[in-house]
UniProtKB/TrEMBL annotation:
Its main location: membrane. This is Uncharacterized protein (TIGR01732 family). GO terms for cellular component: membrane. It is a single-pass membrane protein. It is found in: Membrane. It comes from the Bacteria. The keyword Cell division does not apply. The chain crosses the membrane at residues 25-46.
Length: 47
């Protein structure tokens, strides 16, 4: 539950930051960061 809550916070902050950056670059960067974080969490769960 903690990791899910943390992920939601990170996603919210990242998307918020991406929107404030403006344009498609911000959204693309946010998407990459979220995918990277998901990859880390999934990898940690498998270990």
């Amino acid at each position: 539950m903690r990791s899910g809550d943390l992920l939601n916070r990170i996603c919210y902050q990242t998307l918020k930051g991406g929107v404030s950056m403006g344009g498609g670059y911000g959204a693309g960067f946010a998407l990459i960061v979220v995918l990277f974080i998901l990859l880390i969490i999934v990898g940690a769960a498998w270990l």
